[in-house]
Amino acid sequence: MKQKNSIVKIGAVLLITFLMFRRVLNLHYLDIYLFIFYFSILISMVFGVNYYLKKRYFGRLNMYLRENERNIGWATVITTAINFVVILCVAILLKMINSFFVEGQHIATVFMDGRFRSVLNFTVFYSILLAIYFHITFSSLVKDQQIEEQKVITGNVSAQFESLKNQLDPHFLFNSLNVLGALIEEDQEKAVEFNHSLSKTYRYILDQKNKELVPLEEELAFAKTYIELLQMRFEDSLIFELPEKVKQEGAKVVPLSLQLLLENVIKHNKSSSQRPIHILIKESPDGYLIIQNTLNKKQALENRKGIGLENIASRYALLTSKPVFIEESEEYFTVRIPILTKIIEQMRIIDVPENEQEILVEAKKNVEKIKKFYAHLTTFIMVNVFLIVINMITNPTFPWALIPLFGWGIGLAADAMRTFNYSLFLGRDWEDKKIREYMDKHNNGGTQKWN
């Protein structure tokens, strides 16, 4: 089905372009071979320029569009202006080639006797088509980014849940209680220390699970507590190296990331006193925190990919453009997570009191209505400008483009009044005012009865 739709679209583009060459650009004696030649030049130039722009500026464009949805319009204007220049140059070139080689006229005739108007008409027509295409593409890109961010939010929640689940997992809790029970019989002081570390671990998880970033000092302090807990369980089967202090001032990381990574090490590797797991945590000069462990994989888990790693990478992707690096060699497994010094806020989590939840929901609905109206207005302007240009090119004596402009304009006006709560005869917010009037009347009437 998709292949059939693509063929239909390509056929429509070819037909429209052929008619534009013949009727608008006035390329006389145009046959199929000349059309293929002219069309190849046009497509090569337009696609070549846009491919270069995409390759060089696509990253910046993504950031620009992500900052504000209004930037869609500016991005559309800029890219359309660039393509306008490209199409104008190609149209002049094609007109010159056709005048000199096909019609046998001088190249200068392109700019004489009003012939240049056909070049401008052709350029304006295709520029409008590209403007509509770019606007739809950029809008879709922004929507895809928003959907991706929502997926990352879901991944963030999943990662937090996974972290809690790993710790509250019955197997983990059973092992921890067994270790605690054994320590109570053997060494009561060590049992108290184990219980203290266990309570600190759960407390940190509960305190930090809703935060986007935490200071690296706090995360390392938690990791040290968590490591002490693991060492009481596995004794000399685990060897750890942690930095004594943080070198980078104001360093932050995603909360519970170290806990997830350490848990993955224990989950995916075998350890013994003869062959202990060596885990190294250190800062790198390029602004990364390195977590490295020796490899001794469990056979049952060799081909499994940890969900913790995926969620950590997704959570970092939301906050920074710096990626999470995962490297595996024959001897070591290394994860490098970015150390952040500044929060780039891409989303805002609104926290309101419980009695204001209804107001927040209503406000979000109103904002969504306004966004839809402006999208409707943008489509109205672009489509009608396109129709007016077509009308002027094909039959300027009969203004048929005013018919859809007028009909659609009535619908747009009705949409505007509905969006901004305005009545043509009753004024703005009439319904709300009338409701308040009746409520005040009711309250005053109730007060008079009590008096």
TrEMBL record:
The keyword Transmembrane helix applies. The chain crosses the membrane at residues 7-26, 32-53, 74-94, 119-142, 373-393, 405-426. GO terms for molecular function: phosphorelay sensor kinase activity. Residues 159-238 form the Signal transduction histidine kinase internal region domain. One of its GO terms (cellular component) is membrane. The keyword Membrane applies. Pfam families: 2TM, His_kinase. Residues 362-440 form the 2TM domain. Keywords: Membrane, Transmembrane, Transmembrane helix. This is Histidine kinase. It comes from Myroides profundi.
